[in-house]
Design brief:
The chain is mainly beta and 122 residues long. Helices cover 11% and strands 39% of the residues. The structure holds zinc ion (ZN).
């Protein structure tokens, strides 16, 4: 967060000056149109932030969402039912083939839960 002293409004800093765009870009906290601030002297900080490391890993906790599987026809994009068991999802393919014998290519969609594990403060 920063406060634009010339426009008397606060915003989230979404861009710092660099070689391509030599200005700060602020965005209203509730969303909306960004605005540019050219001079650092026009900004004052209103909040302080700390950064933290996170490790992203497959979620194997007991309360993790279950894996799910579904098959999609690559010809017509129809998707079979999602299931927690891959074999059940695969069983949709022969049924689809009976109705559309010329649809011979498929995609498997696998949904696996992941978890962000907080690490050290930076
Ligand atoms: Zn199809």
């Amino acid at each position: 967060m920063a406060y634009d002293q010339r426009r008397r409004r606060s915003g989230v800093v979404v861009h710092l000056p660099d070689g391509n765009a030599p200005f700060y870009l602020l965005r209203p906290t509730g969303g909306g149109d960004d605005w540019a601030v050219r001079r650092r002297a026009d900004l004052s900080k209103t909040d302080r932030f700390r950064f933290r490391e996170y490790t992203i890993t497959p979620d194997a906790e007991p309360d993790a969402e279950p894996h799910s599987y579904a098959m999609e026809c690559a010809v017509c994009s129809e998707v079979g039912p999602f299931s927690g068991k891959a074999a059940e999802a695969h069983a949709w393919v022969p049924a689809h083939l009976r109705v559309h014998p010329e649809h011979l290519t498929y995609r498997e969609h696998v949904t696996r839960p992941y978890r962000a594990i907080p690490g050290a403060w930076l």
